[in-house]
Design goal:
506 residues, 14 helices, elongated
């Protein structure tokens, strides 16, 4: 007999191992909500809506006012900085470099006076030297008065200017004795009496050792003031820009948030007032940033493109006059001829450094360097002030003016070699060649070179003045009523936009 056996499916709990974890209940599935739906959940309830509207509107109005303050303060700082650089420090730098030129030419004219001596054939040279000396003396007085006026209450600047004034008074006294002795002794051309030559040496030494270094020191101090003013202006402008960006973000955020709030809670697609306030905000912020950028760009042009060339070329002009005086001293004082010739070479190297060791090598090196430059404007093989200028060609007409100046400088340098060769064979003829202002002579060709250099300086001066004027105009637009008018318009448009919505809750 077969016994039937019943089979049961084992219980899950019974079949599970003794150490297995108990099964967890399955949580009911929750549908995933979109970010927009979650945003709706976070929006204020209808009862809280008026308070939120007022809060966001207040934030927008206050941010707009703060943005206007940032725009105005930043533009005012920028305008004041441009004014200081363009109308105070740059004129003072120019005045001190002009002072160096006047000092150098005064000494050159004294030397020319003694070269002419009592020779009746050189009367025109003598008269010209006296007149030019007096003109330069008046020029130096005017420059010192301007430097003193601009120094204002700056004790360091006033002390420096006063020191130059004292030394200049001493120099004028020595120069007056030279002129008096020359008038009474009637020495032959280029042969001053020992007492007269000694008196001239004292005046020349005072100028070379004290006056010119002091004048150059004033230039250096004023250039440092200009750089400090530029750095301070840029720092203030950068701070104002950062604050403006922060205010702009808050302003636009409040306006956009307010519009989103009204759209999602009141189903208003477009709020003309808030849309207008947003557009005005964008125009205000964008216009201020653009105006600030333009003003800063003009400031950079004035400071680095124009001023750097101006200071280098002004210094070059003063150095040129001092080198021209070295030629006259070379003829006047043969005992110091080699020293004067080396001084001329040193100043020539300061103008266009060609790494040569003697005057005789300078012409060939300059010819080779200029030929290389004319073949390739990027191939500038000379340093000094002219090398700096050729590496900073920026403005229309500047390159043509610079090339013309270099060509006339090359002619003047060749004249110097002629002068020194003539001095060895015919000293009297060398005096005429040195002091005659007609073209084709040393003094005449120096005048042509100086005219060409002045024309190049004028190109950079015009660019500097134009940049200062344009930068000041760009900054002035945003330093007074314009940003605050924009802020008031934003506030009015915000009020216009929210007022009808708030009236719905009354």
């Amino acid at each position: 007999m077969v016994t039937s056996t019943s089979f049961r499916t084992p219980d899950a709990a019974a079949s599970a191992p003794a150490n297995a974890p108990a099964p967890q209940p399955v949580a009911p599935s929750v549908p995933t909500r979109s970010p927009l739906a979650r945003l709706r959940d976070r929006l204020p309830h209808r009862a809280d809506l008026p308070a939120w509207i007022r809060l966001l509107a207040a934030v927008a109005v206050i941010a707009g006012l703060l943005a206007a303050l940032c725009i105005s303060s930043g533009a005012t700082s920028l305008r004041n900085g441009i004014d200081v650089i363009g109308h105070r420090t740059e004129p003072q730098v120019s005045a001190t470099e002009d002072l160096s030129l006047a000092f150098a030419d005064m000494d050159a004219q004294l030397a020319n006076l003694l070269l002419a001596g009592g020779d009746p054939t050189l009367t025109a040279v003598r008269d010209s030297a006296l007149k030019t000396y007096e003109d330069r003396r008046k020029q130096a007085d005017a420059d010192l008065q301007q430097a003193s006026s601009i120094a204002g209450q700056d004790e360091h600047a006033k002390h420096a200017v006063q020191g130059v004034l004292d030394q200049f008074g001493t120099y004028e006294g020595l120069a007056a004795k030279v002129i008096l002795l020359d008038q009474t002794e009637h020495n032959p051309a280029a042969q001053p009496a020992p007492d007269l030559l000694d008196q001239y040496r004292q005046s020349a030494a005072l100028l070379a050792d004290q006056l010119l270094p002091a004048a150059h020191g004033l230039t250096g101090d004023n250039t440092a003031v200009l750089q400090n003013s530029y750095t301070s202006t840029r720092g203030a402008e950068s701070t104002a820009t950062v604050l403006l960006i922060a205010c702009g973000v808050v302003l636009l955020g409040a306006l956009i948030g307010l519009q989103v709030l009204l759209v999602r809670t009141m189903h208003r697609r477009i709020n003309p007032g808030l849309l207008g306030a947003t557009l005005v905000s964008l125009l205000l912020l964008g216009g201020a940033v653009l105006g600030d950028h333009n003003a800063v760009n003009q400031l950079q042009i004035a400071r680095y493109d124009a001023f750097d060339s101006l200071i280098a070329l002004d210094q070059a002009r003063a150095i040129g006059y001092d080198a021209n005086a070295d030629e006259s001293r070379y003829l006047l004082d043969p005992d110091k001829g080699q020293l004067e010739q080396q001084a001329f070479l040193n100043k020539s190297q300061a103008l266009a450094d060609l790494k040569v060791s003697s005057v005789g090598d300078y012409d060939a090196a300059l010819t080779k360097a200029l030929a290389a430059y004319r073949a390739d404007h990027a191939d500038i093989r000379f340093g000094g002030a002219f090398g700096d200028e050729m590496r900073n060609i920026t403005f229309p007409g500047e390159r043509a003016a610079a090339e013309k100046m270099l060509a006339s400088y090359q002619v003047y340098q060749r004249d110097d070699r002629t002068l020194r060769a003539t001095a060895k064979s015919d000293p009297r003829q060398a005096v005429t060649y040195d002091t005659d202002a007609q073209p084709g002579t040393s003094d005449g060709d120096f005048g042509t070179y100086d005219t060409d250099l002045s024309a190049l300086i004028a190109v950079n001066q015009h660019a500097f003045d134009t940049a200062v004027t344009a930068g000041s105009a760009d900054a002035s637009r945003w330093s007074s009523w314009l940003p605050f008018t924009g802020a008031l318009l934003i506030a009015a448009l915000v009020l216009l936009g929210i007022r009808p919505r708030l009236n719905e809750y009354r």
